[in-house]
Amino acid sequence: MNLRAYQPDDLPHLARLFRDTIRTVNLGDYTPAQVAAWAPDTPDLERWRTKLAGEETVVAELAGEIVGFCSWEDSGYLDFLYVHQARQRQGVATGLYAAAESALRAKGLARVHTQASVTAQPFFLRQGFRLLRHQTVQVRGVGLPNAVMEKALV
Ligand SMILES: CC(C)(COP(=O)(O)OP(=O)(O)OC[C@H]1O[C@@H](n2cnc3c(N)ncnc32)[C@H](O)[C@@H]1OP(=O)(O)O)[C@@H](O)C(=O)NCCC(=O)NCCS
């Protein structure tokens, strides 16, 4: 697996991977209505561009294809972590997360935190996160359950 920094040309690929992963993988843990609200048909690429401009993003490739990506803020907030539906449980997220954690450690941050989907909670527990609280966030008028999780880095 090759890990590299995000480039602006990746944007439509990441937006598509996000949508398709939610509509297949997350559909195992969320209702069709929740998935539809979370991952609309047509991504707002300008909104994506603005969001990723404020974050650090790493992209995973296998055989020249993008198979996952992870992004985080300087504050230690881990934002996106998505792996292609055909590449689940092959260690892609582990590699992406390791890159994120080492970048955050290099900044001297004391903790990394995230809002983990129901689907991703076992992954984050495996990475040493602890669950702080369950919550429901509103996305396009639909409630999506997730969990606030954190890991100490010191
Ligand atoms: C969560 C996600 C990123 C994990 O990606 P992945 O590449 O499949 O994860 P890895 O292969 O690196 O998993 C490492 C370990 O985490 C744990 N794990 C990962 N997914 C798991 C699952 N669905 N159930 C139980 N444990 C899981 C396992 O211990 C796994 O090791 P193992 O496969 O040897 O048992 C992926 O399932 C995904 O894209 N989910 C949909 C998007 C999403 O919800 N993203 C998070 C938004 S907050």
Provide an overview of this structure.
This protein has 154 residues and is an alpha+beta fold. The chain has a single domain (2-109), classed as Gcn5-related N-acetyltransferase (GNAT) (Aminopeptidase), CATH 3.40.630.30. Helix content is 33%, strand content 35%. The protein has five helices and seven strands, in the order E-H-H-H-E-E-E-H-E-H-E-E. The longest helix has 15 residues, at 92-106. The mean pLDDT is 97. Residues 21, 25-26, 81-83, 88-94, 116-117, 119-120, 122-123, 126 line the site of coenzyme A (COA).
- Could you describe the largest sheet, including whether it forms a barrel? 7 strands, mixed
Topology as a string of helices (H) and strands (E): EHHHEEEHEHEE
Bound molecules: coenzyme A
- Which architecture name does CATH use? 3-Layer(aba) Sandwich
Overall number of domains = 1
Q: What share of residues is helical? A: 25-40%
CATH topology call = Aminopeptidase
Quickly count the helices.
Answer: 5
In short:
The protein is α+β, with helices and mostly antiparallel strands and 154 residues long.
Topology:
Blueprint: E1 2-5, H1 11-24, H2 32-38, H3 45-53, E2 56-62, E3 65-72, E4 77-83, H4 92-106, E5 111-117, H5 121-126, E6 130-139, E7 142-152
Parallel strand pairs: 4-5
Antiparallel strand pairs: 1-2, 2-3, 3-4, 5-7, 6-7
Key words describing this protein structure:
154 residues, alpha+beta, Aminopeptidase, seven-stranded mixed β-sheet, 7 strands, 33% helix, globular, binds coenzyme A
